Amino acid sequence: MIELNQYYDIRSLTSSSVWQTYKSQTASYGLIPHINQLGSDIKGIELGVCWGVNSYMLLESCPNITTLIGVDHYRLIVTGK
């Protein structure tokens, strides 16, 4: 499994060479075919967003998602760089 703590934000992860591998290892990756079969104008909520990786992946892979609301009450503090 690829460690997220080596990336400082979602842009650095998704622009890296490991993005496709990481994406295929996420829990929500298996939802993509099912969401794509639901028709158009899909609205959803992700609870527990953290870094936004699953939201980004779902929006990137499911063009039928028109609205995705992310909810997370934690504040992420990234140190370093």
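Above is the first protein from milestone M3; the second protein from the same milestone is given next.
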Amino acid sequence: MFEKLLELQKNSYVPLTGFRTSAIALTKDGKGFPGVNVENPSFRDGMCAEQNAIAAACSAGYGKGDFSMIYVMTDGEKVSTPCFLCRQVIAELFDPNSSVVCYNKKGEVKVYTVRALCPDPFDESDLG
């Protein structure tokens, strides 16, 4: 998966920070959906790789409970985890025990569960 993520990073659009991120969301039936980060001068409107990968799967008809794991890679020196907005999206659509596999550009890897990264997500019970 490392090589696929590394190749995918070339598609990132990062004119502002140069910080490339790639992700591949896997569904339980074995399909993989790629995503890269896309920056915008209005930083709030930028798009994360994890959210793009998950949105691609949702656009293909997949939804809550259909995902098995997600792989994420940054081109940084340290192994980074998804931002908190991405963690919320992952927590909404993945099972709590699903794996989030994080790589850095050197191939070092750390594996987390969704529950470990987002132990108390905002959900529908918080709406009322």
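Note on the second protein: The two ends are 41 Å apart (CA to CA).
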